[in-house]
Amino acid sequence: MLSFEAVIGLEIHIQLNTHTKIFCGCRADSWGAPPNSNICPVCCGLPGVLPVLNRIAVEKAVLLGAALDAQVRDESFFDRKNYFYPDLPKGYQITQFDQAIVQGGHFDVPMPDGRIVPISITKAHLEEDAGKTRNDVAAGVRQIDMNRCGVPLIELVTGPDLRSAEEAAQFLVRMRQLLRWLDISEANLERGHLRCDANVSIREAGATVLNPKTEIKNVNSIDAVRNAIEAEIARQIGEVEAGRRVSAWTLDWDDETQTLRKMRSKETEADYRYFRDPDLLSARLTPEWKRAVLATLPELPLARRSRFIVDYGLSAYDASILTEERALSDYFEAAVKALGGNPKTVANWMMNDILRVLNESNATASDLAFKPAHLAETIRLVEAGTINRATGTALITKVIATGRTPTELIAAEGLAQISGDDALQALAQAVLDENPQQIEAYRKKPSLLKWFVGQAMRKSQGKANAQALERIFLCVLPPADV
């Protein structure tokens, strides 16, 4: 029985988070706006208007190219890609063809099993988006919304280096992380900020000859990319094993039914009749401007992850979580600096408490009112014995709600830990006096020690030193039957 391997390449459309569209002054993000309310003569392609290139879109393309270790052209050109579709009012799309701003490069993808999969980048080019078409089957009409016309995109094309649906999915996970890290795109798949077409073909394992490739469109989530590619690989293998030839189709993925269907025969470059756009000059990058943009390139996620492991002694898991977002990793480093070291303790608080608060509030670390200096202050108070760990955790939400510092809240609300032996012995005796039946039960069940400590903690409103209470109860309770 023949063994097959998949050969997969991705074409990713990245919506840039600029304020305005790529060739006009219309608002770039129209999410939630009424249909056809965010358009102008330029993005609708009316006669007599001229496009003007958005400088910020070019900056974001340069940053992405640098992050991919690619060649960023000092001069790139815009072309017209000609095709006719109802949501393309000009009858062509302004894009970059053979002289794209970003050429070559590579992107390393960490896999869950520890492998690093290197993926080559063919090119990344600037272009405008088309509108949006929706078929109203009940009314028997096709509805067109032009709001997306002219939205700035980067189309990123990978080499045919992916070998499984899981590798393709992980590529998208890591690319989404990079785009957000560089502040290039919101990269929200559900809102169409990141869209992916997958080119899939198969070959006999070890062979060099490929079957014709198919292109899968309309995949709008990472799970959908994984499922669609798996389905297409299985379909192509079935076709070959049945003695049939795989045809070069463009396929549509239906996420509801988890099925593929043929849209049309796959187009070739010749079908689009590319030629230089006569209304746009080339994009020329001066050395000074290019250096200024590249100076803003931050340390990249994988490099920071490795540094956290080496410099701070974090586990690979903790380092991966803390570098998932740039703002979170910045918060961690700022807290370590404010505390004067002790990175593992900071990491524990981040993983157990800060991430919980961020998830509950759907916020990012940069938006959090509980600043890194507050975290460092809280850790110092816990380590000094001024407050216990539970009170420290509670301080996070109190600081956010009041805007006061941890020290101010401790003084104002009397949150300081009860740790003196006299006070703790009084607490312990009160619990014993109220629960004589539990004292006898303790003889047969020593694990009830935790119950006594819990009752005393409740009486102290969480302010007692739990370790000291446990020591005192061990002294005053009768010996357990062993």
Topology:
Layout: E1 4-15, H1 41-44, H2 55-67, E2 71-72, E3 75-76, E4 79-82, E5 92-95, E6 102-103, E7 106-110, E8 116-128, E9 132-136, E10 141-145, E11 152-158, H3 165-181, E12 194-204, E13 214-219, H4 222-241, E14 249-254, E15 259-265, E16 275-276, E17 283-284, H5 287-294, H6 301-312, H7 316-322, H8 326-339, H9 343-361, H10 372-383, H11 389-402, H12 406-413, H13 421-434, H14 436-444, H15 449-459, H16 466-476
Parallel strand pairs: 13-14
Antiparallel strand pairs: 1-11, 1-12, 2-6, 3-17, 4-5, 4-16, 6-8, 7-8, 8-11, 9-10, 12-13, 14-15
Helix pairs in contact: 3-4, 6-7, 8-9, 8-10, 10-11, 13-15, 13-16, 15-16
Tell me what you see in this structure.
The structure is a single chain. The protein contains 16 helices and 17 strands. It is of the alpha+beta class and 482 residues long. The chain has three domains: 287 residues, no CATH class; 113 residues; 56 residues, Arc Repressor Mutant, subunit A (Orthogonal Bundle), CATH 1.10.10. Strands 1, 2, 6, 7, 8, 11, 12, 13, 14 and 15 form a ten-stranded mixed β-sheet that branches. The longest helix has 20 residues.
Quick structural gist:
By secondary structure, this protein is of the alpha+beta class. Helix content is 40%, strand content 20%. The chain has helices spanning 41-44, 55-67, 165-181, 222-241, 287-294, 301-312, 316-322, 326-339, 343-361, 372-383, 389-402, 406-413, 421-434, 436-444, 449-459, 466-476; strands at 4-15, 71-72, 75-76, 79-82, 92-95, 102-103, 106-110, 116-128, 132-136, 141-145, 152-158, 194-204, 214-219, 249-254, 259-265, 275-276, 283-284.
